[in-house]
Amino acid sequence: MRGAKPQASIEQTIERDGIVRRGDRIAVACSGGADSVALVHVLAALRKPMSLELTLAHVNHGTRESAWQDECVVLRVAATFGLPVRVAALEGVSRDEAALRDARYEALACIGQANGANVIATAHHQEDQSETVLLALLRGAGPEGLAGMRARRPLRDGVDLARPLLHVASDDLRRLCHLHALPYAVDPSNADRGLRRNALRAALGALRPLFPGLDAAVARTADLVSQERDGTQRADLRREVRAVLAAQEDLRDVDFAHVEAAVRAIERGGSGRFHMKTGVELRIDRGMIIRNHELP
What we know:
Layout: H1 6-17, E1 25-29, H2 34-46, E2 53-60, H3 67-81, E3 85-89, H4 97-114, E4 119-121, H5 126-138, H6 143-146, E5 152-156, E6 159-162, H7 170-179, H8 196-207, H9 214-230, H10 233-247, H11 256-267, E7 272-277, E8 280-285, E9 288-290
Parallel strand pairs: 1-2, 1-4, 2-3, 4-6
Antiparallel strand pairs: 5-6, 7-8, 8-9
């Protein structure tokens, strides 16, 4: 997704993954930060092709004096894209991270329902997913925690919470803002190492140069755990592909991307030869795996 045109890649990711669906009425959670501003930009570009209805939803937590500046950024973004905006202020809420998060989602859900939205879209991205999964791991969580944040789940009756950017890097979102000269705010509380998530974020920042694919790998693992836990059709197909390769003793060193390409071909009823590694290929005919003993 790196390169001069991150927007096209992000749009393709959103349309491919189906987390945002044609005709959705979306309240876009916009904090004023680069990630959420980029999400507004991308969804605005998809508004006509996907028949989306968009409203911006901003929650002012009131935890710092500069919060009003974030609200001004959101109003500017709304005006730039010609979108309605709704603002909610939190009052009497503990500054505990969990309490603020719960209050924020409650406020977003209220904005969504009041404006006829069936989806609240947030700008959680690849690095956010890494932090969520690793925090769960450090707590000793089971599969529920290791599955990370769901891409789309019910928030309350008639309103889903959607996270269409979970496979997008934060650098790509900032690059999108810079390319289009979009304003965004910087939250100074992100530098507070006294918060566990911020401390973990700093540690991950030190690890990324040594493990360049860290966030993509964690996001992929979270997807796999989630799909296995839910018993999805894709999880079943993935097991079938791996079982065929294992029966041929060819599973070792097969890259995940090659398995996933074969799974997607099966899902769409495709045909072809899929090279899994040197000297090993998988044949698919109209969505069915052709095993060696079935070859003419």
